[in-house]
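Q: Sequence in, structure out?
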Amino acid sequence: MSDAQARGDRAERRTLWIVLALNLAISAAFFVVGLAGDSSALIANGLDNLSDAAVYSLSLVALSHGQQWKTRAASVSGVMLLVFAVGILADVGRRYVYGSEPIGADMMIMSAIAAVVNYACLKLLQRLEEPDVNLRAATTFSFNDFISNGGILIAGALVVWLQTNWPDLVVGFATAAIAIKGGIEILKDARRETKANREQRS
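A: Exactly. Output:
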């Protein structure tokens, strides 16, 4: 391995450790505030960040393995996003049927804090040079999270203004939709990478 490659691997590893720690912290905060505030959108984002943390852990392991392992790890990441989306849709459906009383102020405060954290993660990942399929998946996660945070901020304001739970449910549903889109994109990217690796070997 060249010195440049070694430096690149160290930078990737350091970045992944930082975004892993940030995602674990913000996920715990989402769960606590979401459960206390009866918010589907906050719990959805908590699950999203927790799945991100699992993906960053996979990415860290993948750095020590070959390209094929990295592609497999990215595929697992995509599948995890799709599974997460199904779970969020189930929670939104439950709250729609049985009702909920989300606290709009909690939603706005938590989403603003999370937006800062996710933006920091996104910028850290975008600074990496020549990211592989696994790191591209990680960047997709952080971008999706940042967009979701903006939706929660708007939904929280609407909950306060309209005194109804539907904005919270809409954002929960939208978060699941974004996760489905991201999961499909990651799987497509991993498939392209697998095909390119196969063609190089043949």
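The longest helix spans residues 166-201.
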